[in-house]
């Protein structure tokens, strides 16, 4: 007969989750590294740490040991008798070493006692501003995983993160293959082991033939690949142009040739069938025995191409076009993923960025923070942050790709650091590489041959908005550096004394950046003025406008340097938050909002900013009609409601918290 589980601890009761009653702490509190507090059934205001008995017994044993050692004349048997056998203390050793008890000294015990007494203290009246600040902090507490109700505070810049901090672990390819019948031996035939050159070549050829099998089973029809590639360039490349278009088109064509090759076909350099004509990838060839060869391996090319298919299929699924299964392409990519990260290269860095973009669309997959810092570290290892010499011998395509990769990582770092309220990965004064120009992109696009897989759309107008967005990132860096730094004893930095004047100067630069957005629409060629391309350009413009309002909110919201903004600043924050919500709504109506990680964060943070400003600012309360505020907030919650296709738990949790805090207002 199973024993009845004891009463749930305070934390499990508050979160309404099942408590297993374990001692000295339940499993939920152990995972969260929190003190497990029991609630006195006779007096709910009294809380006792569940490990109090175990700690008290350990303390008594330690004191008795000290008495035996320092005062042997004291008879310990004269004191009150306690039968410890009645206490079934879990996970407590039968014999306690003195040094293990000394580790938890009186200071830690007094700290734990202090925590308990704090909870017993009745709440005191808080000033209005302090209560409003608690609203802002509470909005920053969000669950990071769909299977956990544990809340995490994620920083003061904005504190809205919708991703599980699970770290990047390469998939186990023995279980994640491109199809149910894909041989698991592919994961066991890595060519980067310790065998000699002949065994190495043999194992590489065996692994390459297994890749050919994956390609034959998983590659879509050429017409479907064309659709997926155009979707990628139209929606993903427009936001993250780190892949070289001509290279990815050439890689797709080469993979089709490998899939069509005979099983007995001869395998050459980097795992490619010898019948495949060598092609430059990222503007570079490899040199083998004095002959130009394809620089990218078939494993990395397969990962790149199938991740492109995965992202494109995900976008189409969000558009309610269910003609492709993203998971099938993703499994094919991860089946060769362990071959792609053995060394630092531009192609490896692109593979990391593909994973990062995938985590933006599917936030429960991996840790975007870890991926961003890994990518930044590889950028520095490869020297992408420094301006190369004019005579370095690199082709124009290679130089352009290196710049594009760096500034994509740079933008991702600024975006993630702002969302999570974390420090910047690299300071602006530590790199001198120049932003690529639109002329460079146009010259490179002109070299894109009329391959059967070439996209039927103009690349330069699409990339123009991304390049313009890169120009916003240094302003974000300046805002983060000047207004979100913590107090430090280092006096090497000269911080501005007049914060309001600095805000005015930065605001002027932001407005100039926003004014230049409209001029980008003139980049559309006259022969591409059909309705689809006009809608694309409109969507890119709205996305850029939303980033302007996000930067304005970052500039004027409460920060370490200005914890209590003035009425004018709060009014600006409110107006920008409302404008951003309306832009997201326009994107949704134009089928341009795919509820990505950053999209959900943007909607939620805008709603949180609205509530905070309404709560704290009398100017906002006087100037904004209640009906208008209710309409805008309802638009915000409606946008969160449609996020069920992309991590519904995060969207629902965000909506619940917004409604809860709005009710408190």
Describe the structure concisely for a colleague.
The protein contains 25 helices and six strands. With 665 residues, it is mainly alpha-helical.
Description:
The longest helix is centred in the last third of the chain and has 26 residues, at 531-556. Helix content is 55%, strand content 3%. With 665 residues, it is mainly α. The chain has helices spanning 10-15, 27-32, 52-70, 98-102, 106-120, 128-139, 197-218, 222-236, 245-260, 298-318, 326-334, 346-361, 368-382, 396-420, 438-446, 459-470, 473-483, 499-515, 517-520, 531-556, 567-589, 597-616, 618-623, 626-641, 648-664; strands spanning 37-39, 47-49, 141-143, 151-153, 285-288, 291-294. The model is unreliable at 86-128, 137-185, 187-194 and 644-649 (pLDDT under 50). The protein folds into two domains: 10-120, CD2-Gal4 (Irregular); 186-563, no CATH class. Helix 16 runs parallel beside helix 20 (531-556) and helix 21 (567-589) packs across helix 24. It is built from 25 helices and six strands. The strands form three sheets. A two-stranded antiparallel ribbon has the order 1-2. The chain is globular, with a radius of gyration of 30 Å.
């Amino acid at each position: 007969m199973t024993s009845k589980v004891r009463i749930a601890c305070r934390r499990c009761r508050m979160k309404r989750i099942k408590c297993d009653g374990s001692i000295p702490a339940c499993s939920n509190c152990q995972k969260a590294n929190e003190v497990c507090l029991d609630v006195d059934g006779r007096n709910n205001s009294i809380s006792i740490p569940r490990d109090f008995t175990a700690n008290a017994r350990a303390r008594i044993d330690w004191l008795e040991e000290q008495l035996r050692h320092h005062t042997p004349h004291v008879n310990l048997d004269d004191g009150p008798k306690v039968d410890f056998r009645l206490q079934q203390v879990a996970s407590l050793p039968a014999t306690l070493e003195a040094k293990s008890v000394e580790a938890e000294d009186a200071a830690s015990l007094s700290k734990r006692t202090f925590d308990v007494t704090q909870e017993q203290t009745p709440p005191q009246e808080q000033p209005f501003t302090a209560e409003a600040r608690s609203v802002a902090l509470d909005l920053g507490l969000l669950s990071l995983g769909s299977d956990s109700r544990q809340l995490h505070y994620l920083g003061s810049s904005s504190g809205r993160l919708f991703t599980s901090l699970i770290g990047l672990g390469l998939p186990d390819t023995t279980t994640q293959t491109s199809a149910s019948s894909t041989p698991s031996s592919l994961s066991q035939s890595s060519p980067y082991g310790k065998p000699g050159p002949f065994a190495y070549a043999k194992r590489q050829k065996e692994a390459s033939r297994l890749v050919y099998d994956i390609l034959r089973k998983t590659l879509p029809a050429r017409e479907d690949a064309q659709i997926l590639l155009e979707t990628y360039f139209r929606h993903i490349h427009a936001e993250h142009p780190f892949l070289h278009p001509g290279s990815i088109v050439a890689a797709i064509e080469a993979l089709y040739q490998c899939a069509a090759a005979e099983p007995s076909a001869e395998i050459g350099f980097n795992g490619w069938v010898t019948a495949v004509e060598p092609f430059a990838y990222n503007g570079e060839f490899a040199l083998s025995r004095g002959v130009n060869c394809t620089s990218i391996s078939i494993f990395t090319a397969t990962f790149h191409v199938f991740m492109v298919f995965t992202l494109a299929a995900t976008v189409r699924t969000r558009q309610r076009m269910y003609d492709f299964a993203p998971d099938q392409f993703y499994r094919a990519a991860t089946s060769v993923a362990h071959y792609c990260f053995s060394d630092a290269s531009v192609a490896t860095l692109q593979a990391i960025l593909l994973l990062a973009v995938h985590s933006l669309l599917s936030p429960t997959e991996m840790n975007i923070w870890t991926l961003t810092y890994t990518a930044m570290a590889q950028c520095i290892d490869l020297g992408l942050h420094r301006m190369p010499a004019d005579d370095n011998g690199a082709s124009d395509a290679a130089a352009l790709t290196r710049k594009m990769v760096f500034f994509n990582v740079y933008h991702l770092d600024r975006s993630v650091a702002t969302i999570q309220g974390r420090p910047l990965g690299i300071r602006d004064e530590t790199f001198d590489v120049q932003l690529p120009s639109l002329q460079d992109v146009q010259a490179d696009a002109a070299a894109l041959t009329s391959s059967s897989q070439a996209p039927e759309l103009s690349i330069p107008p699409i990339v123009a908005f991304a390049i313009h967005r890169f120009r916003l990132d240094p302003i974000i860096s300046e805002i983060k550096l000047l207004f979100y730094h913590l107090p430090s004893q280092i006096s090497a930095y000269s911080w501005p004394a007049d914060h309001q004047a600095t805000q005015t100067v930065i605001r002027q630069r932001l407005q100039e950046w926003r004014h230049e957005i409209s001029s980008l629409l003139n980049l559309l060629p006259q022969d591409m003025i059909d309705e689809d391309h006009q809608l694309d350009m409109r969507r890119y413009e709205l996305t850029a406008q939303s980033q302007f309002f996000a930067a304005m909110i970052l500039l004027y919201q409460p920060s370490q340097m200005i914890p209590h903004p003035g009425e004018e600043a709060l009014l600006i924050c409110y107006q920008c938050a409302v404008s951003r919500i309306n832009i997201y709504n326009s994107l949704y109506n134009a089928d341009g909002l795919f509820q990505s990680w950053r999209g959900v964060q943007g909607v939620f943070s805008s709603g949180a900013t609205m509530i905070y400003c309404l709560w704290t600012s009398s100017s906002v309360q006087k100037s904004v009609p209640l009906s208008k505020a209710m309409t805008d907030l309802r638009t915000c919650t409606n946008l969160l409601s449609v996020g069920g296709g992309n991590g519904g738990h995060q969207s629902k949790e965000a909506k619940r918290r917004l409604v809860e805090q709005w009710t408190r207002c």
